[in-house]
Design a protein that fits this description.
Elements: H1 2-12, H2 16-20, H3 25-34, H4 41-46, H5 48-55, H6 67-87, H7 94-111, H8 115-137, H9 154-204, H10 210-278, H11 288-318, H12 330-347, E1 349-353, E2 358-360, E3 364-371, E4 385-392, H13 393-402, E5 412-415, E6 418-420, E7 422-424, E8 429-442, E9 458-468, E10 473-480, E11 485-487, H14 493-506, E12 519-521, H15 522-537, H16 543-553, H17 559-562, E13 572-574, H18 575-579, H19 590-610, H20 620-627, E14 634-639, E15 647-652, E16 659-662, H21 667-672, H22 675-681, E17 687-688, E18 692-693, H23 694-698, E19 721-723, E20 747-748, E21 762-763, E22 766-768, E23 771-776, E24 779-784
Helix pairs in contact: 3-8, 6-7, 6-8, 8-9, 9-10, 9-11, 10-11, 10-12, 11-12
Amino acid sequence: MADSFACEAEYLKMSLWAKSQLLQGDALRQVQAVYGEHFPIEVRHCLAPWIESKIMSDVDPDNPQHEQYAASVVGSLIQELESKAQVLNTEEFFLTKIKLQGAAEMFRQRYNQNPLALLRIIRHCLGTELKLVQQAENMSLGMNCNPSALLPDASGEILQQLEILRQRTQDTSEDLRRMEQEQEAFALEYHELTKIQANLTHLQNQAPSQQRNDFEKQLRIKKDMSEHKLNVKVLAELLQMRMALAEKHKETLMLIENLQARVLDDELIRWKREQQLAGNGVPFHSNLDSIQEWCEGLAEIIWLNRQQIKEAERLRNKFPIMQANNTDHVPALNTQITQLLSSLVTSTFIIERQPPQVMKTNTRFTAMVRLLVGGKLNVHMTPPQVTVSIISEQQANTLLKNDKMAKGEASGEILNNTGTMEYQKASRQLSVSFRNMQLRKIKRAEKKGTESVMDEKFSLLFQSKFSVGGGELVFQVWTLSLPVVVIVHGNQEPHAWATVTWDNAFTEPGRTPFVVPEKVPWGHVAETLSTKFRSATGRALTENNQRFLASKAFRNPNLQMSLVGPEAGNLMLTWSQFCKEPLPERNFTFWEWFYALMKLTREHLRAPWMDNTIVGFIGRKQTEDLLKQCLRGTFMLRFSDSELGGVTIAWVGDNSSEVFMLQPFTSKDFAIRTLADRVSDLKHLIYLYPDVPKDQAFGKYYTPFTESQTPTNGYVKPLLVTHVPGWSSGGGNLESGSYPPTPQGFYNPQSPEASMGRDTPSVHSATSETVNSRQVDGRSTYIIL
């Protein structure tokens, strides 16, 4: 019993690699299969302790912020490999030494620009080992690592399947070589048979004799034996080898087709969808380099299998023997493998950097196109040219149906619309970057009903033509950009962005270009608005913000209080409510109001917004109710309901039952004086809601000012100060004559939002300049006190 406990304790101390080597049967074969060219098993064996100590750390291969650490780990791995190879000087380790040196060089070339990809591969290998070991033990390992973090991921599984396909391709290559040798041997024996037959024919032309009869008899026996041997070779060897090879190729092509569907239809489509969502501000962690690695692996395997199938077809034509009732699969296999290659090539012609989705005429823009398998198929040996044109939604539909465009058909004129693809050896990327394109003209479709030019969607069409295999196969490839809205003036931008935002967020898979749903659940809209606001301003919308926006979008002020629970997110918001129909008693739409506030916050209020000093999205009544419970001078910053891109200050007067609203500030006001400085100017504002001293909240944003500024050009720079006429500089009482230079009468108890039925007074602010006169350099100059 003591011995068994000792063995168990010793086992628990073993490394993961040591335990993996104790696996048996299929489990051990799975461990062997997960390693290959992408990460040789010799590297795992020779550096087992180092790998487990470094790669089982907290680094996350899917987090771009860990890329610097990943680069240092990969660099250390290469150094460890080179150091290990140097000490392997004995003859028995010669092959291992070469393998380690080759792996170090391969890691340096392949993963130097993408170290996270190598860490992802290694963690997949370790995850597979860990899973198999745990299954064998049927108990948890006493390791200080999180097993769930090491479970096989999509990247590792794809690499493992590629390695399996490489091994199958290598096996069928050996089968093809043996079949060719057998066919050559058959040809030699068949040649011997024809010589025997020729000798028999020659004997029959000679005069009969006993010697001739004996020789003829020997030849006939030899002929019968040779024919029997050849028949056996044909039926038992050659035909069986052909059928077995065809069956293996058939299975390989099925595996290739399944894996290619996963890479192209799942991973690449997911990348494209995430690229589109990034247009709405969703963080985009691109794994395009990994996808290229998978596609290059597929391209290499497909090309090798295609060459094998063509060689098998050549051997078959060279020696056309067939067994009755047997179908020749080689022609069908040749067609299938060529279709797989064609699909891979055409699907991997992608737009890596999209053109702007709101495109203004006569304005420069950029885009980048990349062919993921270009380097592997040596397309760069004859660099292809790419042309760009702009097409309408209807033309995009026609293109998808017919797979071609009428020559010269386009919806506009683009300058600098041609470029030649270039191959970057270090990154193995074949791409072209268009840096100076410009849309000169646009041809629009006829509008119906309430449609506007900002509703109309176009797309940029990128086209190219190239050959592979020395001109054996010619490919015509094309790809469409994300939908583009063309504008000619800046005031069209808000509605154009509404069209783009709705399309990016609510596109459905496999849609007809560029169809989008007419209405969507509010929960999806709220998530989209929050994402866009966070991307533009640095902070997302709170649940309270989103509830307020819902009441605004649905034109129902009571909705804000009742909008709770999951059913709230299922309310359907229409496209018209979103950006077509004006808000009640306003001349702008919900989207125009939201977009103007997002723009204002991004350009002038980003830091205070991120610090939560601006409440922003809150109704007038709720603001009053909250402030009435606070001390005199408590104030709150909220976005205006009545003015596009306006922010107002609401504060409590001496009588806590009365709340005042300052006339909204806009971007024009903040271009003159910042929000923080204006808050500082207004001395009756004391506490930021609920009870934060305003200098504590805004002090770090105040503009530094010293009274003794030395003039540099003969003039003293003035300082503009914001004040509220009728309010004293130090208290909260209404007084007349507080600012003599400023005309009185600005105090206006009539709210600009009186239509909402509130009687809260709105107060205008003014900019005061109090001046003295003095002589500077013999000239009369005015300065602010």
